[in-house]
Amino acid sequence: MHTNDYREITAAVITVSDTRTEETDKGGQAVMDHLKDSKIETAVYQIVKDDFEEIQSAVTAALKQVDVVITTGGTGVAKRDVTIEAVRPLMDKEMEGFGEIFRYLSYTEDVGTRAILSRAFCGTKDQTVVFSIPGSVGAVNLAMKKLITQEVFHIVHELNK
C-alpha cells in the first residue's frame, strides 16, 4: 500500500527542553516540516520542560487528540533526560525495532560509535503511535526521513483495524 491508500492522520509534536522556545526549537520545526511534506497535519505543538510529570501530562493529553505523537529531546543519558522513562509506562506496546534501527542508521550514516548513547522509543496506546526521538536536527531528520514518515501511515492503519 502507498501513503495515498491510507486515511489522513494528525500529529502532536512535543519538544522536551528547559531552554528552547518556539523561535529556537529547530528540532520540533524540522519534525513539523517533515510531517507537512508527508501531508500530515500537526494539530498540537508544545514545548515542555525536562520534567517527568510534565512530559507524561502532555503526552497523555495528546493521546486523546491525534493519531501520532512525536516527542523530541530528553532522550540522552544525562540525569535530566527522562522522556523515554515518562512515555514508556503510558504505552500498551513497545516497538523495540524502532530504536534498534534508529541506532543502526545513526551508526552507519552519522555518528559512528556514539550511536550507543542514542536512545529512541516507539510505542502504541490504543489507536495512537508514539515516537520519542532525540532533539538534534540531524537526529530528527534521520528519524523522520528514514523511519517515521515511511511507516506511520501503516502503523496507524494497523492500530485501527
UniProtKB/TrEMBL annotation:
<keyword id="KW-0501">Molybdenum cofactor biosynthesis</keyword>
<protein>
    <recommendedName>
        <fullName>Molybdenum cofactor biosynthesis protein B</fullName>
    </recommendedName>
</protein>
<dbReference type="InterPro" id="IPR036425">
    <property type="entry name" value="MoaB/Mog-like_dom_sf"/>
</dbReference>
<comment type="function">
    <text>May be involved in the biosynthesis of molybdopterin.</text>
</comment>
<dbReference type="InterPro" id="IPR012245">
    <property type="entry name" value="MoaB"/>
</dbReference>
<comment type="similarity">
    <text>Belongs to the MoaB/Mog family.</text>
</comment>
<dbReference type="InterPro" id="IPR008284">
    <property type="entry name" value="MoCF_biosynth_CS"/>
</dbReference>
<comment type="pathway">
    <text>Cofactor biosynthesis; molybdopterin biosynthesis.</text>
</comment>
<dbReference type="GO" id="GO:0006777">
    <property type="term" value="P:Mo-molybdopterin cofactor biosynthetic process"/>
</dbReference>
<dbReference type="Pfam" id="PF00994">
    <property type="entry name" value="MoCF_biosynth"/>
</dbReference>
<dbReference type="InterPro" id="IPR001453">
    <property type="entry name" value="MoaB/Mog_dom"/>
</dbReference>
<dbReference type="GO" id="GO:0005829">
    <property type="term" value="C:cytosol"/>
</dbReference>
<feature type="domain" description="MoaB/Mog">
    <location>
        <begin position="12"/>
        <end position="155"/>
    </location>
</feature>
